[in-house]
Amino acid sequence: MFPQLHLPGLSFVIPTYGLCVVTGILLCFYWLWKTAPERGFGREMTLQLALLTGNIAILGAHLFYVIVLRTNSFLQDPFIFFHFSEGGFVSYGAFIFGAITAIAYLKAKKIPLLDGLDFTVTAVPIMIIFIRIGCMCAGCCFGKPTTSWLHFTFTDPHTPAGQVYLNTPLVPVQLYNMLDGVFLFVVVNWLYARRQFSGQVAIAFSILYPINRGILEFFRGDDAARGVYFHHMISTAQFTGLFILCLSIPFYFLLQKRTIPAV
Q1: Model pLDDT for residues 81-97, shown as the tens digit of each residue
Q2: Which residues have a Cβ under 8 Å from the Cβ of 25 and sit 6 or more positions away?
Q3: How far is residue 43's CA from residue 34's CA, in Å, rounded to a whole number?
Q4: 43 lies in which domain range?
Q5: Is the full-model pTM beyond 0.70?
């Protein structure tokens, strides 16, 4: 793949993963800005929400990685959090910290919380799509060895996949995760236009994403680097997703029963 971009005329290289993350964030901002008026939200408020939530989400993704997946290193030297050049971002960390930030902002601005979360979630799958494109290019979050005709082969020994499975056909799990992002984008935006109660879109996303992500985790081949539990049966992402799922399902029916009309 292409972990780094070497552009003519530039004396430095551009990390492809970082470029994909930035592109995803900007497109999330654009989608929210574009759809804000028709969905009853001000564009100024939308940009404030997107900027604040986006930045905290990135920090949360890195913090989650450092604390959960590099616990011993973090306890010995907490300043490794600032080693951004070494990479390390966990999607669930971004979602959790991003959600907390969005809730705090919406509360502070006295914007209907559930409606605001529904609106914000319509852009989140865009970030998933571009993060996974970045994973494909960087050779991280790779799959297990496979004999299928549909596979990725990493030939760069400096990529995470190349260090473990150099020149080995691997399940293209990054591609599947990217397609999951496309699926979620279509579903949440379709559902937003047809939602029956406030909070339906946000909770639906928090149910669908853990299920899809949990299934795809079984095809991941980087377990040793990510950490697994229960005798290597469940990954960190699956454990986190299961917890979120257990909270989201009853909360969905609770909101449905209360039948808060969507704005």
Answers
A1: 666 555 567 888 889 99
A2: 54, 58, 127
A3: 8
A4: 13-258
A5: yes
